[in-house]
Write a structure and sequence with these properties.
This protein has 496 residues and is of the alpha/beta class. Helix 2 packs antiparallel against helix 4. The chain binds nicotinamide-adenine-dinucleotide (NAD).
Length: 496
């Protein structure tokens, strides 16, 4: 074991006590590579105090200066993105090219946030009544919290903090304890960019730290991303404590393949979106809904592609890395077993893969089920691993009904060459992000990211203009400058 990761508070790395801590693994070797310190409620309080002071000054810093700092951060992130990607791979396990991809998507939000002067422009109405003007402004919340999951240790925090900082807030980020190092490197980049101490802080920890953040009156909002039960808990507890909450939860993303689709394109998409990042993506495709008679044909094409996929150490140029922990790997393998017991047809079994990597890595190869039905646990539950289920349906209508009845509504995709069918799908489907011949429809940074139903608690999505709205509060000013002709008593509303 080599590294010991502690918190980053008010511009300094904390002298960790490690009284309570978590183990960090390299999922490709199974080895423990370090320890991460867990924050106590007292440390959360100390951090909020420092961040509150920093937020007061930062919120009053000119837009010009804030944008210069954001630009500097963007440049440093871009220059060091390979280094950051390598850190992600070492703790998460995803292949290097995929880690670089997540950094790039985060970078796009930083670029979006550089346009904050335009995004913060309010409205102005001259002469709403005689001599009276009305205008609107948006101001920062103060100290805001971000609690993020293991699967995107750089991108998910970056959905939020560039916008939070650009709008004048101070941030406390609590990353996943499974892969905490990316957040520390990002903190270093902010420091290099000249962000004042206390505006960006990183607290590591588990439920103890999260609960302290949820209850602390100095933290004005929480942006959470993680599994649905925890997202619901965060939403309910945070709102009870008077906070603004956006809590993005789990997913089960369906891909509907119509008989007129280009089946080669659809098979490529199913394999890329089903097994990329070992299925540990909230936008992964985990269910392929085949409108008959396409099922047999597309399953053959998917099988042909799966045979060519390599599983192994993410630094060795393989297609798919390990799962994040042994516990998670075993949980996913348990679902494969359950699928067999429940009567689904196991077409490709990934439980004993040939691997380009160490024997003790957390390996599970790409797995494919056919004849999956809506009552099976491999259909109802989010598995979050490289397991793709095919459900056969007779019609477009049956496919849409199936998708709409699922509790999750994060992403979905339709594969078809029929523009009318695609247009009908985008209107009828009860899901927040929709792809048309695009399997992972993650919105560009200037749109907003978020699902429906049990995939999101709260009503504001991440980044884009909804992000700007989330991290600011509105004020409307009604003003009149003294005009001697306008005096006199009038107890009613002005009429003209
Ligand atoms: P998780 O819910 O276990 O953890 C998320 C965060 O919550 C972590 O920071 C963790 O420390 C904290 N946490 C865990 N247990 C807690 C508890 N009992 N009380 C308080 N806090 C707790 O999620 P994960 O396993 O890290 O990430 C995978 C999940 O995240 C999947 O369900 C995936 O779909 C979801 N996810 C969703 C999106 C989205 O945009 N909707 C994006 C990425 C990941």
């Amino acid at each position: 074991m080599s590294k010991k990761i502690s918190h980053y508070i008010n511009g300094k790395i904390h002298d960790g006590s490690f009284d309570r801590s978590g183990e960090i693994f390299n999922p490709a070797t199974g080895e423990i590579t370090g320890l991460v310190d867990f924050a106590t409620p007292a440390l959360v309080d100390e951090t909020v105090k420092a961040a509150t002071i920093a937020a007061q000054a930062w919120g009053k810093t000119s837009l010009t200066k804030r944008v210069q700092t954001l630009f500097a951060f963007r440049e440093i992130l871009n220059a060091r993105k390979e280094e950051l990607a390598a850190v992600i791979t070492s703790e998460h396990g995803k292949v290097l090219s995929d880690a670089l991809g997540e950094v790039t998507r985060g970078l796009e939000v930083a670029e979006f946030a550089c346009g904050i002067p335009h995004l913060l422009k309010g409205g102005y109405s001259e002469g709403v009544s005689t001599g009276i003007d009305v205008y609107s402004i948006r101001q920062p919340l103060g100290v805001v919290g971000i609690i993020s999951p293991f699967n995107f240790p750089a991108m998910v925090p970056m959905w939020f903090f560039p916008v939070a900082i650009a709008t004048g807030n101070a941030v406390i980020l609590k990353p996943s304890e499974k892969d905490p190092s990316a957040a520390m490197m990002i903190a270093q980049m902010w420091e290099q960019a000249g962000l004042p101490a206390g505006v960006f802080n990183v607290l590591h920890g588990d439920k103890v730290a999260v609960d302290a953040m949820l209850q602390h009156p100095g933290i004005k909002s929480i942006s959470f991303v993680g599994s649905t039960p925890i997202a619901q808990y965060i939403y309910e507890t945070g709102t009870k404590h008077g906070k603004r909450i956006q809590a993005l939860g789990g997913a089960k993303n369906h891909m509907l393949v119509l008989p007129d689709a280009d089946l080669d394109l659809a098979a490529d998409a199913a394999v890329n979106a089903g097994f990329g990042s070992a299925g540990e993506r909230c936008m992964a495709i985990s269910v392929l809904v085949a409108v008959e008679p396409v099922a047999d044909k597309i399953i053959e094409k998917i099988k042909d592609r799966m045979i060519k996929l390599s599983t192994g150490d993410g630094t060795k140029g393989t297609d798919m890395g390990p799962l994040v922990t042994r516990v998670h790997r075993d949980k996913v393998a348990g679902y494969v077993e359950a699928g067999v017991k429940e009567g689904a047809t196991l077409v490709v079994d990934g439980r004993n893969p040939t691997v380009n990597g160490a024997a003790n890595g957390f390996w599970l190869g790409p797995t494919l089920f056919d004849n999956v039905t809506a009552n099976m646990s491999i259909y109802t539950d989010e598995i979050f691993g490289p397991v793709l289920s095919v459900v056969r349906v007779k019609s477009y209508e049956e496919g849409v009904k199936l998708i709409n009845e699922h509790i999750y509504g994060n992403g979905t995709a339709i594969f078809t060459n029929d523009g009318g069918a695609a247009r009908r799908f985008q209107n009828e489907i009860q899901v927040g992000m929709i792809g048309i011949n695009v399997p992972i429809p993650v919105p560009a940074a200037y749109y907003s990211f978020g699902g429906w139903k049990s995939s999101l608690f709260g009503d504001t999505h991440a980044h884009g203009t909804e992000g700007v709205h989330f991290f600011t509060r509105g004020k409307v000013v009604t003003s009149r400058w003294l005009d001697p002709s306008h005096g006199g008593i009038n107890l009613g509303f002005p009429q003209n």
